[in-house]
Automatic annotation (TrEMBL):
It comes from the Bacteria. It holds the Pfam family MFS_1. Its main location: membrane. Residues 428-462 are annotated as: Disordered. Keywords: Membrane, Transmembrane, Transmembrane helix. One of its GO terms (molecular function) is glucose 6-phosphate:phosphate antiporter activity. One of its GO terms (biological process) is phosphate ion transmembrane transport. The keyword Transmembrane applies. Residues 21-426 form the Major facilitator superfamily (MFS) profile domain. It is a multi-pass membrane protein. It is found in: Cell membrane. This is Sugar phosphate permease. The chain crosses the membrane at residues 20-37, 57-79, 86-105, 148-171, 177-195, 238-257, 277-297, 309-326, 332-352, 364-384, 404-421.
Length: 462
């Protein structure tokens, strides 16, 4: 099974109006995840202020997943039915307001409910972003732009401690909540001004750019998808297996956000200033790979999408099991869970959006990503909520968290099974002897070069 891309450009040279759509989606993804990450990073501070114990920390941290996962299903369907732009505006408005309002909580119960409501609005991010990228970029580009989108998420793991911890140490954790949430305001403006649900709805976009984006897509396919078409896609075994893989493959990463900073500062007694500058280093290899994932798919993986997904789960399992079984020094512990554990994000999610193009129509990516991500968050809620009872207080320091990492490592390994049971999808570009039509601002090498021959995308097989 393959995704053939005709004469679409293999490089991620973003021209014209697409450039601003790309930047707006990346910045939106970054600030929303930053608003989420600051909650986990500042766990030692708000937990101490509110007098929360380990069980309450787990319950509060899981509460936003409880609000998050049902909205992922709804947002995916709505993104395919009425478009992703409104979904992203709802997300940004709610996250900005709720994220800042947490600075004013006084009790554990109040933090629980506000965090759950925060998760409701957070649920409008994932699938609408994926839908926007699938509709605005040619199929050959989706692996690269999706990988860059995942990288904008991964950068948060570096930036969040560098911003949140110094502010909390110098002033208070409440100020960190307010300052970070305010960064969502420019994102609201960017989505409102620079994006539309479909490229042909954006004023000023050129015919050349539309032709480049829509290679192999007819007008009927680009229209809003009827519900019967959405339901029909789930008859495919590969879709069902890959949805199951999405539900499991990155679920253990929720444990990293909940317990890593708490483990280092509260349990191990590491100075917060040391954690501020050392912990983000663990994410650097993940981010560097994420930006190169598109090239890795085209190169070492030879266009195949299942191998990177499997590799991500294997690396996560190695990191988590090492942290849980080998009694690692705290610095090695950081890299085991923060580097190996997070590699699954660019390797799996950076491939999944393109995988859907091989088994379904591009206009169904919102629903498919929403269902996969919704199940992942549902499992994440169960996992994080239960994890507070797994701390072994008879052990010292980070060893109290060993059971969490062992459970997470096993989940990574189980996630490999549905990936292997699904059909493989390969993305490739067919050779074309003629140059593609120029985008705005580009010049032809020869003034009278003929128009390229374009072979439409094949109908997906299920």
């Amino acid at each position: 099974m393959s995704v053939t891309t005709g004469a679409a450009r293999p490089s991620i040279r973003i021209d014209g109006k697409r450039r601003w759509v790309f930047y707006a989606v990346l910045y939106t993804n970054f600030v929303v995840w930053l608003d989420t990450a600051k909650f986990s990073v500042l766990t030692p501070f708000w937990a101490a202020d509110l007098g929360a114990d380990a069980t309450e920390i787990a319950s509060i941290s899981a509460s936003y997943l409880l609000g998050y996962f049902p909205m992922l299903f709804l947002a995916g369907v709505l993104a395919d039915r009425i478009g992703p732009r409104l979904m992203l505006l709802i997300c940004l408005t709610g996250v900005t307001v709720l994220g800042g309002s947490m600075a004013f909580v006084q009790t554990v119960d109040e933090m629980y409910w506000r965090n759950m409501l925060f998760g409701v609005f957070f649920g409008f991010l994932w699938a609408p972003c994926q839908r926007m990228l699938a509709v605005w970029f040619a199929p050959i580009e989706t692996a690269k732009v999706t990988a860059a989108w995942v990288a904008s998420l991964m950068i948060v793991s570096v930036v969040a401690p560098l911003i949140a911890l110094p502010i909390a140490s110098a002033w208070a954790w409440e100020e960190a909540f307010l300052i970070i949430s305010a960064l969502g305001i420019p994102a609201i403006i960017a989505i409102a001004v620079f994006t539309r649900n479909r490229p042909d709805q954006l004023p000023g976009i050129s015919a050349q750019e539309l032709a480049h984006i829509n290679v192999g897509r007819d007008e009927a396919a680009r229209a809003n998808v009827p519900l019967r078409e959405i339901a029909k896609v789930f008859r495919s075994r590969s879709v069902l297996f890959m949805v199951a893989a999405g539900a499991l493959a990155t679920t253990p990463t929720w444990l990293i956000g909940t317990w890593s900073t708490y483990g280092l500062i509260t349990l191990q007694g590491i100075d917060p200033d040391v954690v501020t500058y050392l912990a983000p280093l663990a994410a650097v290899p993940v981010i560097l790979y994420a930006f190169g994932h598109g090239r890795a798919v085209a190169g070492p993986f030879r266009g195949r999408l299942r191998p990177p997904m499997v590799l991500g789960a294997v690396l996560g399992a190695v990191g988590f099991l090492a942290a849980g079984l080998l009694n690692l020094p705290w610095l090695a512990w950081i890299f085991a869970i923060g580097t190996l554990g997070f590699m699954v994000d660019p390797l799996f999610w950076g491939s999944l959006n393109t995988y859907w193009l091989g088994v379904a129509k591009p206009e169904l990516t919102g629903t498919l990503n929403g269902v996969a991500a919704g199940l992942q968050v549902a499992f994440g809620y169960v996992l994080v909520n239960a994890s507070g009872r797994w701390l072994d207080t008879s052990e010292g320091g980070l060893n109290q968290l060993d059971t969490l990492w062992i459970v997470g490592g096993v989940i990574y390994l189980v996630a490999i099974i549905p990936v292997l049971l699904s059909k493989d999808v390969r993305i490739h570009q067919e050779p074309d002897p003629t140059p593609p039509p120029p985008l705005p601002g580009e010049a032809r090498s020869t003034p009278d070069a003929p128009e390229p021959s374009v072979r439409p995308l094949p109908e997906p097989t299920t």
